[in-house]
Amino acid sequence: MKDEEKAARPAQSAEAEGKSGAGAEDGGRGCAAAAGPKTGLGETSGARGVSGIRVLKRNMKRNGSRGCVTRKTRFGSRERDWLKGDALRGCVCLYGATEPQAPVPGPQTTSTSQPDLKLVLCSTSTSVEELCAQRGVQSLYLQLHGDLIRRLDSSERPLQMVYDYLTTMGYDDPLRVQQEAANSDLSCMIRFYTERPLNADQQERTLLKGVFSVRKGKTQLHKWAERQVILCGTCLIVASVKDSLTGKMHILPLVGGKVEEVKRRQHCLMFSSAGPQVQTYYVNFDTLAEHQRWYRQASKVVSQTISLVDLSCYSLEEMPEYLFYSQDVTHLNLRHNFMSLEGPRGLCNFNRFSQLKSLNLSHNRLGVFPETVCEIQTLSELNLSCNGLSSIPPCIGNLQSLQTLCLDGNHLNSLPEELGGLSQLCSLGLSFNNFTIIPAVLERLVAMDKLAMAGNGVEVLELSSLLRMGHIKSIDLRLNGLHCVKSETLEPVKQLTHLDLRDNRLTSLDLSAACNLETLHCQRNQLGVLSLSGFTLRTLHANNNRLATVNIYPVPNQLTVMDMSWNLLEYLPDWVCDSRKIEVLDVSHNLLLELPARLLSGLSLRKLLAGNNALQRLPDLLDHIPLETLDLQHNRLGELPESFFYKALNLKYLNVSANALETIPLCSHSEESLSTLQELYLTGNNLNENCVALLVGHQNLRVLHMAYNQLLSFPASKLSKLELLEELNLSGNKLKTIPSTVSSCKKLHTLIAHSNHISVFPEVLNLPEIKLVDVSCNELTEILLPDSLPATLQELDLTGNSSLMLEHKTLNLFSHITTLKLDQKPSPNAGDSQSISTLWDHGYAEMSGQRNKLCVSVLAVDRFGDSMEAAYGIFDGDRNEEVPRLLQCTMGDVLAEEIQHSSIDNVYMCNTFLTSHRKLGMAGQKLGASALLCYIHHESSELGSYFSLTVANVGTCQAVLCRDGQPLVLSKVFSLEQSFEEMERVKTAKAIITEDNKVSGVTCCSRLLGCSYLSPWVLPKPWVRTEPQCSQDEFLILGNRALFQRLSYQEAVKTVLAVRDPRAAAKKLCTLAQSYGCRDNVGAVVVALHTGEDSCTCEPPLTSVEVRGMLASTTVPICMPPVDPATPSSSSGIASEFNSETSASEVGSEAGSTASDEHPSSGPNARPERRCSLHPGATICNTGGPGILAPGAHPTLFQRQPSSATFSSNQSDNGLDSDDEAPLEGVISNGSKLEVEVDIHCCAFQLRSGPPDSPKELDLRHDSRSSDYNSKVRRQNSVVVSATNGCLLAVCGREISDLKKSPSTSSLFGKKLSNGSVVAPEDSHNIIEVALEAPKKKSGYFAAPAQQDPEDQLVVPPSLEQDVREQLRGQSPVVPGPPPPSTPPINRDPTWEHTQPGLPHTTFQQEVYDTAL
């Protein structure tokens, strides 16, 4: 009890104020307070503070680098015990008046000016008044998101404000809220000052004054005198008496005047007014800095055409001193301040501005209407938006000159009758208030022609009430929850021309009475019936409804634009074809079976979007048409009309992707073509190389996409004629080469040809404008480079070319490329750990589209932490790249830390997002990003438990799980257009939602990481969902907004199912999105899930019949081993790193083997099970039949061709020169960004066992299955090892020790071979690999792994072969596997085929790495 009383008593005011780092940025976190080591703690005698307040005595000094102030370093044991006593206690950080300094180059010293930081322990009931009394200060100031600074009221409670802020963000646990409140990073979002921070730039723009030498007039009659001079607002003020403002003040209006430098006098300016009576003052300044400051500010004033004073966003509480002298001010902007009503310079004195016409007081937290402004009779424009007003006073009727009144974003539900007396009021903004009906007073405002009431609560609109408002022509009632529009009267509503009913709940809409309606917006309702009058209709937007037809009478002959996309139209109404002036028609995403012939024959149609329907044919064109844009993607077209191209001569854009085209029509019957086609998209059809010749006539073609067709080649002569080509996409075909005539396309800047069979690098590096080259997932072996590369080359993707070898010289030439993607070698430790990463592997792709920068980042960690877990994420910054990169670098670490604090998925995932949001620091104040994080983990701490997918997301990134071939969406889209709950929440918080459905015109997302200045409208709290894995789960797709805008969930799943390899699948998803019209950044991650019913990779039991049935035709693909726990996964997007002390050859050629310690089963029908690391077996040798699939190679799952992931690092500098063989990965010698992709090739081999066959039987069996066997070897990227050219030894048990004793083989154990391979020395390894020694590569950063040819097998060196055979003779059976198909049968040593009596017949299975040559 005494301890509690002592803790509650006021602490004695003892403090030592230190310098806390807020000036340097650490990893983008921004101005967060930091503290060095504490130097003392205690309480000294002195005045007692206020109850509940404890002041810590700290001397926190900066020691050069910025450290993080943690609770442990801040508080002593007594303070920590005091905090633990009650969750309502906490710490408030009080900063001094010095504003944080920007980081300066060079070493930091302890004398660097930093803001004073005082740590005050208090409770949530402690008020500002108590804190000020204890601290001896006048008041406290609050700064949110590094923006405006507000003086706190004496009754406000700072700690409670912090707790409320954190609770609004999404924290639920009171103890976690208490912990976060004491975190220094929080100062970037909420910060308290004991004095108002000084801002020299703000002072310069509001007020300049000083005592200088002044002379009046241009003649020499006046003498120079010392006078006080003031520049404020629009006037120059000169006092008549030195150092005194009591005498006469000379006012010089500067708007429209002149300010000039006087050259014959140093630091002198001449100020002249405008008008017939010109006044001139000469002011001589003491220093050059003052001269420049005054000249800069005065130049802005004199250049204005109106007398405008802009003081917006200055955190002002009252008008600047001397501004009332500017009597000529006509426009005053005080937006985003904290103006007070009372005081000598408050709003109560604004009637002194006798000529004021425009006053903007929006976002000032007024709370009540400032009645004083109603006394300014000259006022014609008044903006009081977002001030929390609940009523308008009757004195508003005094503003008879008022023409514009903005009252948006308040809490109004009624208007005074006096408002109807404003005869000149023509614009009234009432959006985002609490009106439930249209105010009747509006009937008297005859000058107003537009009713703006978006975001209110009007549920019923009666057209009869509009008859009484004959002056209203335009009505905006979007976002009102409107569910009924009544048209009970037969009298036409003639005055209504524009009506906006977007984002409501309408199920039917009859506007036949609005006979003069010109524009209608009714998107995103639930309309099933729509009836309109067509007399004057010009624009109709009715997309995203349930319309099967639209009734318009009479025919809308004035209609020019109609959007009926995302509806249920099965046919187009006849009036569409009869409309004479329609230019733009969007009927995509409907159920159309055909297009009327009259539609395409119209003479007005310029743009037709009819994609995602069920069209089977296109009607013949009867005559030349003016059509310029035609989109027919995702239909069932088998052909285009033969006369299509020479009848549509104005066509510039054609997209027929995702159809069933086998050919395309000729562009002209004659040799001379008049085609103007510039963009042609043919992706996803059945076109072959014969169609290329038909493209030659389109000589104006700039963009050509022919990805995922059946092209075997691209005729060189045809490509040379497309000289204006700028972008060429030939991915997903069967090309073996890109013609050398591509060098004729001098304007080509983008070449994408991934997922082909290209073996020779295309000759595009001589093109002057080339920017991007993507030849990933091909069969490149070498690159022939010119002497110098074009400076325009920004991205080069060479991943997935397993046989590609790059010399050191080649990499140096690539050093200037911004993004270089290469295959990364497996980690040297990869073979030493168990093969658990085969539970999942991934691939991803990022494409910038037509943007200049890539704003999408990916996090991919196949092995997360030290356990069998994984983490994947995707981050989309929309227009910024900083926040996605920061999240990519930090979010994995944050998740690992949060998992330690809580085992509840919803808690640790939510806290991961909130902590990552805080760690963004200053970068997250104005910038933000959508984020999605997927965490694969055990449902409980037991290893044998089920795996689960926990997905959390904010924004528009999405995750789709393929379960049994069908998509299962795991995420939630936080977009205002797609989430009614989020729209209502944002509306309730009084955010202004613009017509394009963006919060304050910034973002369409209601939840983001970053953009903290939009709080509480935009929050970082994520959606969290946990889905247990089952045997039907095949893969997971993560994508950003741009991907799923163009691809449906079903198409995305089908695409990946068809490709199988994760990297190639991710590439295809992004390529399809671009071919479907995406021009933004697009990113995709594909994660293959190799988990069975028991959440492991153990194979279900098979019968002996099944085993025998697969013996002749199935090879054993072996999964790749994981990396060492101490080394990040080589498949990780950001965490994979090479050991800087390992040479390139060591990194590239590490070989390892893993096997379980199982005893072989006896009997001819014994089936060895496939085991995983969760359920290890108990035998010495891991056995498996030839038909048994290895982990990660389930027949319905992925067969990894080359595994992929991208390592990206563009902010590091390894400091190594070009001769270093072990630089930090991701960085070439000049520090350019380098993306290195993991490519761990999982080769497999199988060894047969059983009774020895005779040579004839072996030969016959080999001949009968050679062709089928060869195709499966190539398809599964496996290696079948036989005794050809030596043999690969399989040795068990005691044979290892015998080999170690042999002089010829002992050197192979635990010793690095000359090619960089290492054979592990452990006795537990029951399978030994001996690789042929190869010359060590002397140069190059990374050497791409080579694909093994069938005849390129791992063999025993000839010098060791005889010794090994002697050691093994008579001890163990070594049964060779089937020889490669290309190798003729050879005579085998009978000793190698002799079986030892008494030993069971076993089949061996092993994992093998490719060795780098």
Low-confidence region ranges: 1-51, 57-72, 99-114, 830-836, 1097-1355, 1372-1413
Radius of gyration: 38 Å
Going by helix content, strand content and strand pairing, the class is alpha/beta
Approximate shape? globular
Portion of residues within helices: 10-25%
The main pleated sheet reads as:
25 strands, mixed
User: Termini, distance in Å?
Assistant: 77 Å
Number of β-strand runs: 57
Q: Tally the helices: what do you get? A: 27
Strand percentage lies at 15-25%
The average pLDDT score comes to 75
Structure commentary:
This protein is an alpha/beta fold and 1413 residues long. It contains 27 helices and 57 strands. Helix 5 (158-169) packs across helix 6 (174-181), helix 15 (882-901) crosses helix 16 and helix 20 crosses helix 21 (1062-1075). The longest helix has 22 residues, at 1255-1276. It starts with a helix and ends in a 5-residue tail after the last strand. 49% of the residues are buried.
Structure, briefly:
Helices cover 16% and strands 18% of the residues. The protein is an alpha/beta fold.
